[in-house]
């Protein structure tokens, strides 16, 4: 990974990227056009005004020709201090370690601020999104799907919001695939604060990533925009629960525009939180009922589905609790002491591994 350190050369390099990031009127699309025409930031800032005008409006070209804005200088000092902490890194659009799938979208960020395992950004992943005000069943489904997919080596990508996002990250942390949180604030902040502990665990075991400058607080407009990165980093987007006007539908729409697969979990026709998923299915999203459905779809995209040994461990305490007689989930939860969401995730992983069979009536039995 190209980790920017605090030597004189790399500080100068970072200063150029930050200066470009803070030029008013230069968003990701314009920045990419400038980089394509002139090369790295120092060449952009030394380009003649007339040449700049061929790529951006004259008003923006004048701003590029001006000295660095104070905000860029203060951001440089803040970022260099932040990079001193273990696990922190900045990836620029020119870095070899920049996530390749993000290079496919129309407006990839100039800079990515990363906490944790940056390699997860380039691994095959699935985004799991849904309502912040999710039902208990929806949160259990998010955790179960995420754990099973992560157990198969798929990285779980979500947005650190309450509800579905939170439980998707929790499930992702329980598998080998890990989890990536794409946030709408600076990477040095955590929003919502209720997820402070979860964010710390993700930074230690998974990855937190943001395109926003350090210190930037939660601004409502940033969250719909960060959704393009959630879908952009993923091979597919799974919507667990969503009302008819849910922000998750923005992520699903962006996924379709980016050429990603969209999956949706159906629900009751009477459930408000199923309306968005049903609308997506009507529009062509793939209806899924199990993590295995998602894995099979991913295999068509060139991602191998999990083998029996990958989906779940050979032996787990839950198998001993199951014994050889059928049991319902409530009985298993009482016997194992596991929370229902965790229990259903383990049962799903064992089912995918061929170790447990789901019987009519909501019963589970160990395979003989």
Key descriptive features of the protein:
single chain, 368 residues, alpha/beta, 9-stranded mixed β-sheet, 3-stranded antiparallel β-sheet, 17 helices, 12 strands, elongated, disordered N terminus
What do these coordinates show?
The protein is α/β, with parallel strands linked by helices and 368 residues long. It has 17 helices and 12 strands. It has helices spanning 8-21, 28-38, 41-45, 49-53, 58-65, 70-82, 136-151, 164-173, 196-205, 222-232, 248-257, 275-282, 291-300, 308-311, 317-322, 329-336, 340-352; strands spanning 88-92, 111-116, 125-129, 155-158, 179-182, 207-210, 236-239, 261-264, 286-287, 327-328, 356-359, 363-366. The strands form 2 sheets. A 9-stranded mixed beta sheet has the order 1-2-6-5-4-3-7-8-9, with helices on both faces. Helix 7 packs across helix 13 and helix 7 crosses helix 17. It starts with 7 loop residues before the first helix and ends with a strand.
Write the layout of secondary structure elements.
Blueprint: H1 8-21, H2 28-38, H3 41-45, H4 49-53, H5 58-65, H6 70-82, E1 88-92, E2 111-116, E3 125-129, H7 136-151, E4 155-158, H8 164-173, E5 179-182, H9 196-205, E6 207-210, H10 222-232, E7 236-239, H11 248-257, E8 261-264, H12 275-282, E9 286-287, H13 291-300, H14 308-311, H15 317-322, E10 327-328, H16 329-336, H17 340-352, E11 356-359, E12 363-366
Parallel strand pairs: 3-4, 3-7, 4-5, 5-6, 7-8, 8-9
Antiparallel strand pairs: 1-2, 2-6, 10-12, 11-12
Could you give a quick summary of the protein structure above?
By secondary structure, the protein is α/β, with parallel strands linked by helices. It has helices spanning 8-21, 28-38, 41-45, 49-53, 58-65, 70-82, 136-151, 164-173, 196-205, 222-232, 248-257, 275-282, 291-300, 308-311, 317-322, 329-336, 340-352, and strands spanning 88-92, 111-116, 125-129, 155-158, 179-182, 207-210, 236-239, 261-264, 286-287, 327-328, 356-359, 363-366. It is elongated, with a radius of gyration of 22 Å.
């Amino acid at each position: 990974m190209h980790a920017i350190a605090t030597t004189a050369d790399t500080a100068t390099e970072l200063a150029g990227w930050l200066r470009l990031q803070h030029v008013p009127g230069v968003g990701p699309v314009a920045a990419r056009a400038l980089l394509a025409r002139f090369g790295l930031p120092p060449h952009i800032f030394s380009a003649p005004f007339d040449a700049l005008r061929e790529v951006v409006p004259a008003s923006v070209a004048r701003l590029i020709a001006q000295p660095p804005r104070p905000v860029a200088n203060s951001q440089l000092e803040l970022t260099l201090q932040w990079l001193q902490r273990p696990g922190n890194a900045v990836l620029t659009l020119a870095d070899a370690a920049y996530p390749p799938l993000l290079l496919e979208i129309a407006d990839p960020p100039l800079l990515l601020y990363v906490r944790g395992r940056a390699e997860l950004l380039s691994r095959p992943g699935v985004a799991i999104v849904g309502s912040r005000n999710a039902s208990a069943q929806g949160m259990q489904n998010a955790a179960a799907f995420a754990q099973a997919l992560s157990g198969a080596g798929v990285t779980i990508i979500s947005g650190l919001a309450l509800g579905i996002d939170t439980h998707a990250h929790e499930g992702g942390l329980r598998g080998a695939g890990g989890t990536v949180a794409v946030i709408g604030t600076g990477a040095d902040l955590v929003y919502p604060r209720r997820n402070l502990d979860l964010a710390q665990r993700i930074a230690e075991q998974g990855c937190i990533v943001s395109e926003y400058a350090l210190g930037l607080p939660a601004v409502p407009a940033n969250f719909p925009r960060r959704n393009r990165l959630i879908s952009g980093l993923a091979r597919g987007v799974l919507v667990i629960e969503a009302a008819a006007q849910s922000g998750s539908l923005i992520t699903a729409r962006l996924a379709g525009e980016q050429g990603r697969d969209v999956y949706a979990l159906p629900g009751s026709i009477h459930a408000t939180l199923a309306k968005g998923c049903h609308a997506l299915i009507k529009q062509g999203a793939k209806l899924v009922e199990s993590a295995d459905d998602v894995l099979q779809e991913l295999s068509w995209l060139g991602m191998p589905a999990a083998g029996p040994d990958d989906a779940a461990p050979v032996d787990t305490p839950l198998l001993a609790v199951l014994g050889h007689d059928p049991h319902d989930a409530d009985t298993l939860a009482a016997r194992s002491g596991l929370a229902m969401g965790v229990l259903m995730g383990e049962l799903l992983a064992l089912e995918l591994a061929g170790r447990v069979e789901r019987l009519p009536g909501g019963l589970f039995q160990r395979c003989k």
